[in-house]
Amino acid sequence: MKWIADDKAEESCARTAPVGEALYTAAASVQSYVLPAEPVVVVEPSSSWVALNLREIWSYRELLFFLVWRDVKVRYKQTVLGASWAIIQPLTTMIIFTYFFGKLARVPTDGVPYPIFFYTGLLIWTYFSNAVVNGANSLVGNANLITKVYFPRLIIPSAAVLAGLIDFAIASVLLLGLLVYYQFAVTARYLMLVPLVALATTLALGFGIWLSALNVRYRDVRYALTFVVQIWLFVSPVIYPSSVVPQEWRWVMVLNPMTGIVEGFRASLFGRPFQWMALAYSAGFAAVLLMYSAYAFRRMERHFAELI
Length: 308
Description:
With about 300 residues, this protein is mostly helical. It has helices spanning about 1-30, 55-60, 60-75, 85-105, 115-135, 140, 145-150, 155-180, 195-215, 220-235, 250-255, 255-270, 275-300, 305.
């Protein structure tokens, strides 16, 4: 019996020897591993006065592109008409406005045909309003992503705003058809469309970033924003030109930053004079708003994970 027990012990040691040898080798390799003199990655809180860390955002540019493309794909996933919805929304609103404000109310349009007058205003307005609403709801809609992995949180509302440019580009195809149909000549003034769209994007980024941070703390923002955007449409020169407003009250209308953008959009297409003072105000307002929004976002960012 003793011999049998000794044989079993030797067999057990033989089986466990490779495991022990592997553990010994792993322990030796850990002991021989030398840590670097300085940390490879350092995560530390940023200064409260720093609004934007452009170097960090640039290093995550691939993530920004991925989130933009994801928003576009999710928006039209399992839809029959797909990207055609980007045209249907402003087109349907244009038809309604043309009938009620054009045929019935006879709103003046400075000699521009009603359909293209309304569509140009609605095109830039639809992009701006959707970008602001989507940007404001972006953080709440990506709660799982925010609480699980680190990346610059500023990328999320930025991606929501930039994704709207795809819809804007698709809807612009119908605008080209209307310009051809109503025989508007192509001029060098069309080059102003690029900075005007960039200005609308900057303004939407400013509002989207600021409202997205507020929406994390106060969920009333998402409900109030829909109401505010509807009112904002009627106080902007989308349905009517700014020329219908009396001269002594136009300065009040210019306080709306979208006035200079919408009027400049139409001026570049229809050969009208640009309202440079209104454009300068819109550009200054957008720049200041973007800087303030980035600063406010960074101040509130540290509490996102616990509030969202």
